[in-house]
UniProtKB/TrEMBL annotation:
One of its GO terms (biological process) is fatty acid beta-oxidation. Belongs to the enoyl-CoA hydratase/isomerase family. GO terms for molecular function: enoyl-CoA hydratase activity. It is an enzyme of class 4 (lyase). Keywords: Lyase, Plasmid. The keyword Ribosomal protein does not apply. This is Enoyl-CoA hydratase. Its EC number is 4.2.1.17. The keyword Transcription does not apply. InterPro entries: ClpP/crotonase-like_dom_sf (IPR029045), Enoyl-CoA_hyd/isom_CS (IPR018376), Enoyl-CoA_hydra/iso (IPR001753), Enoyl-CoA_hydra_C (IPR014748).
Amino acid sequence: MDFIRVSAANHVTTVTLNRPEVMNAINGGMHQELQAAFDDFAADPEQYICVVTGAGPKAFCAGSDLKAVALRGEHPVYPKSGYAGLIERFDCAKPLIAAVNGLALGGGFEVALACDVIIAADTASFGLPEPLVGAIAFGGGLHRLAREIGTKQAMGMILTARRVSAAEGYRLGFVNEVVAADELDAAIARWCAEILRAAPAALRASKEVVYRGLDEPSLQAALANQSSYPAYEAWRSSEDATEGPLAFSEKRAPVWTGR
């Protein structure tokens, strides 16, 4: 990989955007590498969680590489799962965590919003400044932000193109936890350890039920249709669903397989 780093240990895949010299801005090559990395994570039965972060102390991701567009006319073709190979990856039921270590602007904020959990350093900041350069945040940010924090708060950020701190992101509700910058790695490790206590199959089913249920026309429809969701069906017949009650009855720690 030329533009990202990927590592995997203890059922956790870490994808690091690795262009710190340009605030981890995303160019065409990075889009394709991210698509491949997330494809590999989604397909690997031994990988249960993916952490997305940025290299260096300044930025998670500053969004698209506008200099490449302006100077070289490089207009990247987005991969099949959309911007960064992530923002349209609606079929991935595994947990995704954004470890936001600095600026998360434009497409970078959209990548973070596409994750299920956002843990931010107290030095991080977020925003959708696209209108300031004559563009719009069409990579899901407009839709996800309004859904997550409500229309009025989202429109306040969107129409002013203002940047908000990690603390304000927490107050608004799109950040799960804010920690000191030098404690971010430890916080991510803690979140992963807590998530890994649970059955991977049950977590995948839970994530899918939440997101697909929100798209149903009513709570009644969500309850009626959840048993047809793929991850729910997989969980019902999984080894994890059998192992949980068995381990409880035998008074021992469960051994999850994710199958």
